[in-house]
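Work package 3, deliverable 3.1, input record:
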Amino acid sequence: MWHVATVVALHDETATARTITLEVPDWPGHAAGQHVDVRLTAPDGYSAVRSYSIASAPNAERRVELTVERSPNGEVSPYLTQEVAVSDRIELRGPIGGWFVWRPRQTELIQLIAGGAGIVPLMAMIRSRDSAGSTTPFRLLYSVRDPGATLYRDELQALPHQECFVAVTYAYTRAAPKDWSRAPGRIDAPLIADKTWPSDLTPTCYVCGPTSFVESASNLLTAAGNDPNRIRTERFGPTGEYK
Amino acid sequence: MAIVSRGFSGRRSTVDVKLPPGQYLTTDFPVLSAGPTPRLPLDRWEFVIDDGTNVLRGWNWKSFRDLPTETITVDLHCVTRWSKLGTTWEGVSLDTILADVKTDADYALVRSYGDYTTNMPVFDLLNKQAWIAFRFDGEDLAPEHGGPARLIVPHLYLWKSAKWVRGITLMHEHQPGFWESLGYHNHGDPWREQRYLGDE
């Protein structure tokens, strides 16, 4: 039931977020969007478990990448972002969840909307699309505090926007880069109208982020004419830990 | 048995409370839903008990609110591992709702606005174990927490406490609901840690 995973690589994404690459010899495989339970155990047997979204696409190497945002009052995320080292072992359960999932056999238009660390499972979908050779058009609307808080910035920038049809739009909430076309602020109706798929094209929408962000973005999508049944959501916080 | 995590000591709760296995205490009230929050005007709200073919009982908001209510204080346990203790709700007991319903069905499929479903034995809905709640902490229930009315069945994981309830279908066999079809446990008793399909 619990898989033993070995840390094989660590990569700091931002000042507070780290990607942990795990090798899991008996990993049963996963789909983009699913999450895992991570269990840490202290020498006296005390253990703590939290859920984290998988960032990596399904792969044959039985590797699982998690990107963890440190929450100052968290119990597990400070360990995963500051303490854990290559060759350490932790325990995983999963993959979990069969709803907030994108599979390469899906051919409809895809709208992804991320708030902050909510990008993680959506990145798994973008990576899965690429590794499966899917040509399904994706759009990503990524709301983030400021450019320095952007996860996967280089990888998102390197996506060949025109040919490959993964169109990325950033919405900065606190500070935008110089000469940015839009003043810092939350996602609003004009941005939804301008940068997401028109609802009459019936995209499937995946919205992930903090509760208030998901409430707001999914309400805007519904108001723009999207069928609520085509909007899948994943919320986290305000407990400070993912989900 | 478990692998010890080098350098992990954990942050043990200083509060002396007994939680189900694998749960941690939270004081805020996280929101977890699979889709957008439905907005239900009260004049279009209805709650119906059926047997899959025939409507057995039905209420509109006014007749529902004419039913006797109870105020309960209960602990909530979410499968995503947070527990919130001592929450106060006002609602109508399922004992009241099902009192005049003649049925020999053993299973229930609870249905929500927004097409969410969850299943449980009828046994788990009776004997002061489940309520249709419309107030939380003395306030009308907010839409994101399931308003206008939600099921509260606190002895099971919180996904069983369906938000935005619109009715219950009584059946002779288990029919897995939304999460129960997606890898979560059919029964979901937190004290037996019945989280996922295949647990226990």
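The longest helix of chain A spans residues 119-131.
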